[in-house]
Amino acid sequence: MFASSQLGVDLGTMNVRLFSQTKGLLFDEPATVAYNRQADKLMAIGQKAKQMIGKTPPHVEVTYPLRNGVIADFDRAKALLQQVFKQSSKQLGLAFKKPDVVMSVPFHATSVERRSFYEIAKHCGAKHIQFIEEPVAAAIGADLPVGEPVANVVVHLGAGKTEAAIISFGGVVACRSLRIGGNQLDEDIMQYVRQHYSLLIGEQTAEQVKIEIGSAPGTVMEQSVTIHGRDFVTGFLKAVSLDPTEVQTAIKESLWQIAEAIRAVLEECPAELSGDIIDRGVVLTGGGALLHGIEQWLSTELHVPVHVAPNPAEAVAIGTGKALRAMPKRLDAAL
Questions:
Q1: CA-CA distance, 154 to 69, in Å (whole number)?
Q2: Are 83 and 150 contained in the same domain?
Q3: Binding positions for ATP (predicted)?
Q4: Please, what is the Cα angle at 248 between 242 and 252, to 5 degrees?
Q5: Is 279 found in the same domain as 169?
Q6: CA dist 78 to 45, 56, 64, 124, 140, Å?
Q7: Residue 20: pLDDT band by 50, 70, 90 thresholds?
């Protein structure tokens, strides 16, 4: 009863995940909200709402309430988390009432931004709320020994931002945040297609291109994809074929900025911990870690071993779920 009432919440820019120590991952869907302004009514959340993007009449808004890892629309974010709790409660039953919540927040989140997360969790019925920084949660979820006096370098490649951190003794030694993530790569692809093919495509199309043939520089891929959109010169619909080298060209500038942010963190590493980094390397978490070839490319650029966590997209959610047991002192300090 006690263990099952402890929940980890990863309320991210593109996805929301709920983790229980006893049941595992309870909820994992897009952080999307569809709202009918005429009826003043919530229509859908998650995957159902995401499928409505770009396909609704003007009075139906489909939005992501978070931007760059922090809350941009308080009311929509609250409605989203309320529905997530409601849907997940069926799996936990009575143990879900007044849960203790561990919620991940960006390392550089301000006190005002943290307060917004706190208020939303309170509105949703949480009894006790504790915060944990996303890099620490990602490291715990990746099974790194964060409580030991060794350097753990984790790079969380999220949708709205990238956070690179060195963690030792349960605390963050150095951290760099960059407002470049998977969403920016999607935007890069959309701009490339618009500039080179005069074609307008949507966010979901760009995301699918990234997933299928997106890759880091130097990665060799043979597959190409056909995309459909509207020619903004003629106004007609048309289809074009994209190959992996074109997508590499589109996203390479953003990837270079991510690599530079990681390099800057490594340069801040204390001398006593530098040997650990050479031996243990860097661990990638977040959906961006699934980009083809990014592991090998970063290893070449940074001159250290780079590994992808076992479940990179779920690492933060898993880490929040384990956090009360693994790092109680760290959580108390974060409040």
A1: 17
A2: no
A3: 207-210, 287-290
A4: 145
A5: yes
A6: 12, 22, 12, 7, 27
A7: confident
Domain shared by 126 and 152, yes or no: no
In CATH, what number is assigned to the domain containing residue 234?
3.30.420.40
Greatest Cα pair distance, the chain, in angstroms, is: 63
85-115 per-position pLDDT tens digit: 999 888 776 556 788 899 999 999 999 999 9
| Residue 70 lies in domain | 3-137+315-334
Residues in the annotated binding site for ATP: 207-210, 287-290
Per the structure block, which two tokens stand in for 142?
């990746």
**CA atoms of 225 and 127, how far apart (whole Å):** 49
Strand partners, 15: 30
Interatomic CA distance for residues 62 and 195, integer angstroms: 27
Can you tell me which residue has the tokens 């994809």? 225
For residues 18 and 81, what is the distance between their CA atoms, to the nearest angstrom?
10
Q: Report which DSSP code applies to 181.
A: S
Chain mean position to CA 86 = 22
Q: CA-based Rg of the chain, rounded to a whole angstrom? A: 20
Beta-strand ranges (E) seen in 37-96 are: 41-45, 60-63, 66-67, 70-71
Mean pLDDT of 313-322: 93
Over the stretch 139-190, which tens digit does the pLDDT of each residue have?
Answer: 999 999 998 999 999 999 999 999 999 999 989 999 999 999 999 999 999 9
Task: Assess whether 17 and 123 both reside in one domain.
Answer: yes
* Cα(192)–Cα(204) distance, integer angstroms: 15
- Please report, in range form, the residues annotated as the binding site: 207-210, 287-290
What are the tokens at 75?
Answer: 């009311």
